[in-house]
């Protein structure tokens, strides 16, 4: 089945009791027992389980081709719960270029709790190998990376993890299953911030973990999900399920526009460098062809000059909204180093663009007028 058909099938089942084509939102926090004290549908209480959340979780598993999906109240809650399933003394290997919240969780929450971690440039496979120790339990990849759009070889990195008895987790937020299915490259867990492309309209916060197999580790995380309760509300689950129905068309349209924007910026006299997997000069071209169906709608651009020039350029834009986050239908732009704070290693002249559904010609005209001096 093609992805678009799968996405519809996974999120659309008419309600068997009423025939409602759009499934209802089960707001109830509690579920009644019958005369003999049994739970007719197996639901007890919404923290451990809820029908609307369960529908989303099944859809997430189907989209990625995994055995089990779990929904969380944010991407960070998903990452947090995965790390909570480890034990003090365990070690994590993490990409050097990753969403800044992931290393922040490890440093500020889990390091004091007893986890150790090593950050490594995942393009350097020898460095990945050297970073993996006997107590490494998790190798955490993010590809394309944030904000440099570098590509990790998932097949090799997951093999290195497995050789050491560790699991390979892939943060697939930027690619989405439309562009890349990490289980096809032997990853064990896929993580998403559903806040981004999966919901797609910048109006819901959510996260997900999807497991290739229903292992003991997956069951431990299921336990933590219900026990610690970082779960999304039924309404938020319903919004993410609705977003998934249009994921394929949105990503494809946004990718076509992003390619045009990247080509316009690449080679413009006011631009130092463009980072986009769809450009022929991307250093990881071979890997992109092997691993991704299309280059996606995220790109970064380094403007000639430093932070001041980049911020002056931002100020002149009329169609792009100056805001963090990504994956919505409206185009966003941000000065990434400001968002990441004083410890950021991101170049000061770098701007990150999330391309939405506006017409490419209008976006390019806006960028052109802001670059003109
Ligand atoms: C946004 C994001 C996260 C964190 O997700 P939240 O929903 O904001 O908690 C993690 N990874 C990536 C790649 C992201 O873009």
UniProtKB/TrEMBL annotation:
GO molecular function: cystathionine gamma-lyase activity; cystathionine gamma-synthase activity; pyridoxal phosphate binding; transaminase activity
Protein keywords: Aminotransferase, Pyridoxal phosphate, Transferase
GO BP annotations, alphabetical order: cysteine biosynthetic process via cystathionine; transsulfuration
N6-(pyridoxal phosphate)lysine: residues carrying this PTM: 196
Cellular component terms (Gene Ontology): cytoplasm
CDD domains for the chain: CGS_like (cd00614)
PANTHER family given in the database record: CYSTATHIONINE GAMMA-LYASE, TRANS-SULFURATION ENZYME FAMILY MEMBER
Protein name (database record): Aminotransferase class V-fold PLP-dependent enzyme
Organism: Spirosoma agri
């Amino acid at each position: 089945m093609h992805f678009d058909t799968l996405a519809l099938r996974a999120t659309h089942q008419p309600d068997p009791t009423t025939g409602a084509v759009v499934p209802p939102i089960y707001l109830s926090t509690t579920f009644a027992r019958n005369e003999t004290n049994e739970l007719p549908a197996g639901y007890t209480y919404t923290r451990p389980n809820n029908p609307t959340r369960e529908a989303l979780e099944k859809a997430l598993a189907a989209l990625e081709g995994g055995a089990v999906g779990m929904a969380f109240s944010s991407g960070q809650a998903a990452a947090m719960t995965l790390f909570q399933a480890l034990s003090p003394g365990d070690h994590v290997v993490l990409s050097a270029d990753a969403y800044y919240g992931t290393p922040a969780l490890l440093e500020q929450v889990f390091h004091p709790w007893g986890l150790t971690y090593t950050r490594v440039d995942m393009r350097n496979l020898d460095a990945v190998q050297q970073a993996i120790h006997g107590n490494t339990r998790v190798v955490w990849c993010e590809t394309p990376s944030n904000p440099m759009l570098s590509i990790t070889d998932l097949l090799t990195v997951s093999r290195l993890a497995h050789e050491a008895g560790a699991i390979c987790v892939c943060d697939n937020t930027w690619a989405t299953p439309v562009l890349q299915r990490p289980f096809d490259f032997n990853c064990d867990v896929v993580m998403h911030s559903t806040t981004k492309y999966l919901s797609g309209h910048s109006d819901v916060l959510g996260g997900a973990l999807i497991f290739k197999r229903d292992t003991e580790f997956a069951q431990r995380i299921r336990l933590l999900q219900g026990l610690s309760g970082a779960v999304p509300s039924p309404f938020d689950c319903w919004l993410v399920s609705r977003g998934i129905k249009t994921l394929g068309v949105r990503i494809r349209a946004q990718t076509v526009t992003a390619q045009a924007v990247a080509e316009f910026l690449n080679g413009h006299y006011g631009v130092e460098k463009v980072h986009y997997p769809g450009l022929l000069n991307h250093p990881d071209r071979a890997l992109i062809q092997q691993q991704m169906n299309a280059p996606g709608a995220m790109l970064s651009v380094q403007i000639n000059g430093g932070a001041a020039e980049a911020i002056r350029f931002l100020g002149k834009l009329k169609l792009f909204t100056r805001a963090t986050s990504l994956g919505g239908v409206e185009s966003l732009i941000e000065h990434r180093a400001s968002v990441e704070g004083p410890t950021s290693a991101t170049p000061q002249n770098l701007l990150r663009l999330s391309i939405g559904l506006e017409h490419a010609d209008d976006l390019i005209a806006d960028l052109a007028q802001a670059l003109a001096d």
